[in-house]
Write a structure and sequence with these properties.
Helix content is 31%, strand content 10%. It is of the alpha/beta class. The N and C termini lie far apart (52 Å).
C-alpha cells in the first residue's frame, strides 16, 4: 500500500504540534493546539487555549467557542472542518493562570510559527481576529476595532 506524501502544510503542522519551545514556562506539558488546511477560506486568529481546551486538545472547546459558533451562525461540524476554517492562535498552548484570569499567550509561538502557517493558507478570504494580542500581531489599530469578549453574556 502506497503512502500519501505529506503536503508542506501537513509537515509544518506536524512540526508545530511537536513544539516544546517554551515548555519551561508552561504549567503543563506542551500541547500545541491549532487547526489548518490549505483549502480553508476563514481564519480565526485567537489568543491562546484555555485550560479546558488544553485538556481536550480541541480549539475553542469551551464556553467561548460555543459563543463564537453562535455569533458565526455555524455548528460544530462546520467549525471543526479544517478545510473550511483555520484556527491559528497567538499562543498554541495554555499559558497558565494569573491573578485575574489566564496569562497572555507565550511570546515564542507567533514569531516562530504564524507567518509560516499563514504562508501555506492561500485561500483565506476572511480573518476573524479575537483579542488584543491577536489584534496587535495582525496590526489592527485599537482605534478602528473594538475588542469583544467571548465570555460576556
Amino acid at each position: 500500500m502506497a503512502t500519501i506524501p505529506l503536503t508542506p502544510l501537513d509537515s509544518l503542522l506536524k512540526e508545530v504540534r511537536s513544539c516544546t519551545l517554551c515548555k519551561e514556562h508552561l504549567p503543563c506539558v506542551p500541547r500545541p493546539i491549532l487547526q489548518a488546511h490549505q483549502d480553508a477560506k476563514i481564519l480565526i486568529a485567537g489568543q491562546a487555549p484555555g485550560n479546558k481546551v488544553q485538556q481536550t486538545g480541541i480549539p475553542f472547546d469551551d464556553a467561548s467557542g460555543e459563543r463564537l459558533r453562535e455569533w458565526m451562525g455555524i455548528d460544530k461540524e462546520i467549525f471543526y472542518d479544517a478545510k473550511q476554517i483555520a484556527i491559528l492562535p497567538m499562543g498554541f498552548c495554555f499559558p497558565g493562570t494569573g491573578k485575574s484570569g489566564d496569562l497572555p499567550p507565550r511570546k515564542e509561538c507567533a514569531p516562530q510559527w504564524c507567518e509560516q502557517v499563514l504562508a501555506l493558507l492561500p485561500k483565506i478570504e476572511l480573518t476573524l481576529v479575537i483579542g488584543k494580542y491577536a489584534m496587535a500581531w495582525h496590526g489592527i489599530c485599537k482605534m478602528t476595532a473594538k475588542p469583544m469578549s467571548l465570555n460576556r453574556s
